[in-house]
Amino acid sequence: MCGIAGFVGPGSATDLRAMTDAIIHRGPDADGYFADQHLPVFLGSRRLAVVDIAGGAQPMWDSQGDICVIQNGEIYNHRDLRRELTALGHRFTSDHSDTEVLVQGYKAWGEDLFARLNGMFAVAIYDRHRKKLVLGRDRFGEKPLFYGVRGDCFAFGSELRAILAHPAFKAATPSKIGLMKFFAHGFFPGAHTPYENIAKLPAGHLMSIDVATGQREIHAYWTFQITAGEAPKGSVNDWAEELDELLGKAVALRLEADVPVGIFLSGGVDSSAVLGYAAQSRAPADLKTFAIGFREDSFDESQYAEKVARYIGATHHLEICHLESARDQLPALLDAVGEPVGDSSILPTAILAAFARKHVTVALSGDGGDELFAGYDPFKVLGRAALYDALVPGPVHAAVKAVAARLPVSEQNMSFDFVLNRGLKGLKHPDKLWNPLWLAPLQPDEIADLFATKISAEELYSEAIAAWDACPSPHRVDRVLDFYTRFYLTDGILTKADRASMMVSLEARAPFLDNHVVDFVRRLPWQVKLHGGVTKWILKEALAKRVPADVLSRPKKGFGIPLARWLRHWEPPRDTVPYANRDMLARRWDIHRTRKSDERLALWCWIAVSHGLKKAA
Hints:
The protein is an alpha+beta fold. It folds into three domains: 2-220, Glutamine Phosphoribosylpyrophosphate, subunit 1, domain 1 (4-Layer Sandwich), CATH 3.60.20; 228-374 and 479-553, HUPs (Rossmann fold, 3-Layer(aba) Sandwich), CATH 3.40.50; 570-617, no CATH class. Helices cover 42% and strands 16% of the residues. The strands form four sheets. Strands 2-3-1-9-8-10 form a six-stranded antiparallel beta sheet. A six-stranded antiparallel beta sheet has the order 4-5-6-7-11-12, with helices on one face. The protein is globular, with a radius of gyration of 24 Å. The two termini are 25 Å apart.
């Protein structure tokens, strides 16, 4: 696990050092650099040593000095690939470095290497003979990779702040469309970032750069897509057994490390599953689990985590936090993130990561389970939403929304008024817009007013609409699964998890995103994921012998904070959002403070931008 950075074009070794210093938290154990000042090509790495501590230094070269690799991430199938490459005649000098597998794998297969990788990674490969730089990102974008183009300078890095440390980007201009999409989604979708001339390499994509001419090409080597028409052979019981076997193997792979490994445990289905499968590979008493609890009952799940840990026999670590005290950490936390993150649960996630880092260097999480198995509440209401949308006339819908808006505003986690008002926002729009609008901090007309720019819902949600239209299944559940997995997971959940964990030099691993698990689950029909109103049905069937029954049956509870209450006692940020009308945002803050409506999502985005842009620049 590392942080990587580099550039092609004008600059110096001092600039490269500044870029890697900006992401030292991603790799505090070692650094490494390469500079070919004649082309010029500069590559830098900060290393968090996890696998082959003695033999995994970066940049790593082949014996001829032709192929150079820097990477951020872990290749879980590196042992299998090493055996395959050895049989082809490749010779390794390290004991078990996964980075050397990338070096030799590129020599054997070129860019086809990336489709063979089962892991999380952001990789840069310099082919000196061909004067070519190849950048690649894992299937789901667990590991970030940004790139910027300004004049004749091409720069890349694991975080925005690495690119912004290069002189060509220090005066980066905020992106208006990027910020508008941030307020539309609560995250930056697809390639968008908060800056002009800086983009994300999308998940599952490769970019090749001719370092002599500057010519760039980008293409997808893998795209998530529901293919339920290609269901696996066998019965539903066979599917549950195969899922059970695949998850067991995925967790076992992610337990491999040369440093201490633990497990994030909320007591929900997904993290409990990870622990249950981990107990297949290691003695339960050797498993370390980590949870945080809160004094506020509406937000606390610690008793469930403790129950699961006792059931398995794991060594459990619990830290009780007072959220009213924890909120004092928010300004420093948001400054440290280095970019706007629109999910306020980054606070408890960061607290949990910091707690776990006192004991371990790697932690397994349950990320991906909700998205792959229809675990979110909107899946339960799709049928009722369709019926409502078909039967309720527009004027009646407007009246219902007005009545719902007058409900007393609650401060409880996922309160009735919050959920109802969220749900009503998407209806009476095309169904391809329901889910983006249900998640939206602001509605399209509100964003147009805030930024004084005419923009349609189709433009704001263009990436999600394109995916909806491309989904081969006609059924809403499948298309919603596609949306949550391709966008909300990749650009929202995984971004939050990566930044919160890596700011304390903790590597987070997600077994549910294993290649074999995903390729199996995306072929399953939606009826075994959402079955009789039960979410994650097939997963729960697979887990029946590994997790307590009451854990499998209890309602989902989000990892939240009492943001709505806190905002009523805070002063609004002094900084405005670039291009936005500050008075409009301030009025929205006043409306929230006086309990006329719940504006927490939009106001959090304002806070996130005020910290993220300032500190990133």
